[in-house]
Amino acid sequence: MKPDHTKTLALLIVGVLLVGCAHAASYNEEQMYSLAAALSKLSRAVDSAVALRGAPEGLSEEELLDFATRDDPSLREPFVQHKLHVLRQGKNSAVLVCTPDGRRALLEDAGCTGRFERHWWREDPSKSCAFTLDLAATCGAP
User: Fold this and answer.
1) How far apart are CA 84 and CA 142, in angstroms?
2) Which residues pair with 107 in a beta bridge?
3) Where are the domains of the chain?
């Protein structure tokens, strides 16, 4: 007689679903959409600094964020609990928001577009904290 693995399989499936739900539920939808709106403003400020206001080439991510927000430092306030990264390619830029430990991506946005690019917290909650945008394709030639 073959052993019945139905219960084991069912428990395994329930366990995986619970872990997945708990992982995704750790981000409140309303808070994340509010953070995305704040990121749109920040990414536009970085884009403006890079494309129009002559941000020097050799700036670190932190220095570029400081340069971009020097007239309105409040743009960075919604992200004090998160890791921010800036990607600069020629005259184009993007900002990536990651979990406080810097392991997972939450939001990614290029300042050159009117739409919001990626809601990683919802699309792929286990996405590593790394840029995915091709700024030349997203923004056009620098």
Assistant:
1) 23
2) 97
3) 29-139
Cα 67 from Cα 55, distance rounded (Å): 7
Q: Which two tokens stand for residue 26?
A: 């750790």
Q: Taken in order 37, 63, 127, 139, is the CA torsion positive or negative?
A: positive
d(C-alpha 47, C-alpha 113), whole Å = 10
pLDDT in tens, 6-41: 555 444 444 433 444 444 446 889 999 999 999 999
Written as six digits, the tokens of 44 are 């536009």
**Helical residues (DSSP H) of 69-133, grouped into ranges:** 120-123
Q: Give the number of C-alpha atoms closer than 13 A to the C-alpha of residue 136, restricted to the C-beta side.
A: 3
Q: How far apart are CA 2 and CA 103, in angstroms?
A: 43
What's the pLDDT at 12? Answer: 41
